């Protein structure tokens, strides 16, 4: 026998059976689908994220090591450049900068005072 909540009798003695409420039927479908998608999304993210994070960390570590190595090589090359003490004094006094920075700029320009001063003024 049908559920009494879903049956209506109208004035002509016709029995109309109501369809189950749409919200209830749709709710089960939507919730089940949404829950299933959450689970599959979570599993996919876990698989991707653990591998991706370790790969990204390795790439960043390799990049930083290469940059540090390149900087070290650059510093060795700059240290080999011969500069005059008078040129360092001139740049230091004229530009009102530290001696270390004056030496650095002079070394970067291979001891050329004019080029070092031009860069510092620009």
From TrEMBL:
Occurrences of domain Nascent polypeptide-associated complex subunit alpha-like UBA (ranges): 81-121
Acidic residues composition-biased segments: 1-10
Identify the stretch(es) annotated as Disordered: 1-32
Which InterPro entries does the entry mention?
Huntingtin-int_K (IPR052617), HYPK_UBA (IPR038922), NAC-like_UBA (IPR044034)
Superkingdom per UniProt: Eukaryota
Residue spans of biased composition, Basic and acidic residues class = 11-32
Which GO terms of type biological process are on file? Answer: negative regulation of apoptotic process; protein stabilization
Q: Per the record, a Pfam family?
A: UBA_HYPK
PANTHER family the UniProt entry points to = HUNTINGTIN-INTERACTING PROTEIN K, HUNTINGTIN-INTERACTING PROTEIN K FAMILY MEMBER
Name the UniProt record assigns to this protein:
Nascent polypeptide-associated complex subunit alpha-like UBA domain-containing protein
Q: Which organism is it from?
A: Capitella teleta
Q: What is the lineage of its organism?
A: Eukaryota, Metazoa, Spiralia, Lophotrochozoa, Annelida
